[in-house]
Inverse folding.
């Protein structure tokens, strides 16, 4: 298992649309394990493959609370089959936009179809933080970031700040 470097805003890689996985083989299982290790190291509660530069439709999540046992979950080729009318608002963050947080409103509950780490087809209903995190990660698979759900003014401020920081990093050649 390997901790991979995270892709950070405004890297255009984050805007790529990820492609479905054709089969769940050992290479996919290794990718899932690397993603989990990278997520736990960060630390974060979710990670999409594009955040480590792999444009494939796979994401990992662990929404277990501090002090609870680890509960890693792998979702391959996830599809949202339905979303509730009622919404919930969470303060979201993203490992690709470090130290920036904003409130985002999304459907409170979703129905999801996906393949698990063993390649078995599954269906589940999610609500609460898991539903929010799944929608945040599935957005990543489509090149969408949580800042796309906030005001244009706030988004432009964040993008400008991260663009300046990236230029500084580049000129210092680190
Ligand atoms: O670690 C993360 N926390 C989080 C909090 C609220 C809503 C979504 C998230 S996902 C984020 C990790 C991440 O960037 N996943 O793509
Ligand atoms: Ni994210």
């Amino acid at each position: 298992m390997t901790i991979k470097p995270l892709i950070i805003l405004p890297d255009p890689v984050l805007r790529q649309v990820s492609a479905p996985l054709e089969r769940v083989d050992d290479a996919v299982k290794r990718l899932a394990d690397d993603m989990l290790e990278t997520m736990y190291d960060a630390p974060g509660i979710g990670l999409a493959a594009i955040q480590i530069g792999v444009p494939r439709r796979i994401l990992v999540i662990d929404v277990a609370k501090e002090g609870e046992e680890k509960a890693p979950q792998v979702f391959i080729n996830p599809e949202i089959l339905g979303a509730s009318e009622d919404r919930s608002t969470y303060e979201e963050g993203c490992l690709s936009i470090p130290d920036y947080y904003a409130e985002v409103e999304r459907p409170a509950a979703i129905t999801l179809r996906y393949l698990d780490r063993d390649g078995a087809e599954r269906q589940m209903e999610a609500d609460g933080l898991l539903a929010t995190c799944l929608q945040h990660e599935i957005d990543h698979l489509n090149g969408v970031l949580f800042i796309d759900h906030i005001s244009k003014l706030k988004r432009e401020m964040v993008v400008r700040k991260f663009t300046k920081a990236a230029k500084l990093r580049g000129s210092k050649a680190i």
